[in-house]
Amino acid sequence: MSSNAINKRRSFTVIFALAFVMMSASFISAQVQTAQTSTASNMNLRSVPSGAKMNFRGVVIEHNGDTYTIRDRTRADYSVVINSQTSIKTNGGFLHGGKKYADTDLLRGLIVEVEGRGDAQGSLVADKVRFSESDMRAAITSDTRVTPVEENQQRIAGQMDELYAVAQEARQQVAVVNDRVTAIDDYDEQASVAVTFKVNSAVLTPEAKQQLDEFAAKVTDAKAYQIEVSGHTDSTGSEAKNFRLSKERADAVVQYLAVNHKIPMRRFTSPMGYGKTEAVADNTTAEGRAQNRRVEVKMLLNRGLSTQSNATTTNPTQP
């Protein structure tokens, strides 16, 4: 299995593990919210300016008639009014329609997203209330356990901030993993060198070897890199001969770096010979042809894997 495939599998494993942590934290948070009392709610109740539009996510902690108290993640409580115009649905569903629910289904412990506007009394008149089916199932389960949870409310209340912190950290780690997966095929050029050859030759000159020695020194401590090698010729000779000669030049460079500097072959992309197709100078002059008889060597740093290597200091990737 290739290095990229292994790292992708590891990344997605982390994603699923963190998703499980977030789901667990969400369920426990729903149970914890049921332990909050009416007195505490009134002490933290925040007013919404009249006419102000607001959208927030929180947990239903109590309700009285058509008025619900919903606590957000900062532990601020809002009075939310549900009326006949309020749309109460689950997220998703066929054509994103979601399943409709009555206001009486908004149980304590249910995690909801509310959108509406403030009224003259400082309450939020809800236009929309959305939640997931999994959160509804968790709320139903927690509702059957209200009594034992309330008996332990002091102990549970102390866990609130910790649970939110765990969930937030899990989300941040998921975001980091997603960024690494997205960048897995992106490379930045860190070092490069172009060595030239004599006419009709694929033998490295002493000057070319010195240039490659200096290039290899830059690779010694690098992590998560690949080396791209491309061979080229001038315009003299047949097309078939130039393609063969350019490939031989590229192979000579790879062999020198692998044998003399112990750079593993897995670090090299397949060396490519381009013949005379990518000239960098004028082939009608001797100087131009000399520049075109070359091999270009580039060290490319993988953005996704280099980020992971920098973050993991206990088991660094060997070059």
Blueprint (SSEs and pairs):
Elements: H1 3-33, H2 38-44, E1 45-46, E2 53-64, E3 67-72, E4 77-81, E5 87-90, E6 111-118, E7 124-131, H3 133-143, H4 146-151, H5 153-157, H6 160-182, E8 187-196, H7 206-219, E9 225-231, H8 239-261, E10 272-273, H9 286-292, E11 294-302, H10 303-311
Parallel strand pairs: 1-4, 4-7, 5-7, 9-10
Antiparallel strand pairs: 2-3, 2-6, 3-4, 6-7, 8-11, 9-11
Helix pairs in contact: 1-3, 1-6, 6-10, 7-8
Give an overview in words.
The protein has ten helices and eleven strands. α1 crosses α3. The longest helix has 31 residues, at 3-33. It folds into two domains: 34-143, Bacterial OB-fold (OB fold (Dihydrolipoamide Acetyltransferase, E2P)); 186-311, OmpA-like domain (60s Ribosomal Protein L30, Chain: A, 2-Layer Sandwich). It has 319 residues and is α/β, with parallel strands linked by helices. The chain has a five-stranded mixed barrel with strand order 2-3-4-7-6. Strands 8-11-9-10 form a four-stranded mixed beta sheet.
Which features characterize this protein?
single chain; four-stranded mixed β-sheet; elongated; alpha/beta; 60s Ribosomal Protein L30, Chain: A; 11 strands; OB fold (Dihydrolipoamide Acetyltransferase, E2P); 10 helices; 2 domains; 319 residues; five-stranded mixed β-barrel; disordered C terminus
